[in-house]
Amino acid sequence: MNTTGYSKMAQNAIAAMSYLAERYGAGGGAPLLRSAEIAEARGLSQTLVAKILTILSQAGLVEGVPGPNGGYRLQSEPSKVSFFDVVRLFDRVNETFPCPFGADYCPNEKPCPVHDEMVAMRETLDAFLKRAHFGKFLERHST
After folding, report:
1. Which residues contact 138 (CB under 8 A, 6 or more apart)?
2. Neighbour tally for 99: CB within 10 Å
3. What is the mean pLDDT of the chain?
């Protein structure tokens, strides 16, 4: 059961980004990290991490450097990148949770009994995703 409110792909992207954030500043800058290293560190498949890094690179959140000495690194300081910046690339954000009574139930004049709570839950999740940033992982690694 997914309790985060966002997809497994978005969770995996956060995991990959968090590793890049942990390593940010190690050795005096943002080191180039191979997708295989990130995958191993987070217990993900290398193919999945490579796909995620390609999407993050296309969005300008990470830089991909090709070649034998290449790899990936964050484009900016981890505290400037929110979870929302990542999740929005993999999920439809700012949508309401689906009504447990079916798609046609809540649009009626009288919404379902849990409608207001579901809307509040979505708003709380969106606020968290916008507030949480990857600088927390840098702080974790440096302590």
Report:
1. 21, 22, 24, 25, 78, 79
2. 16
3. 85
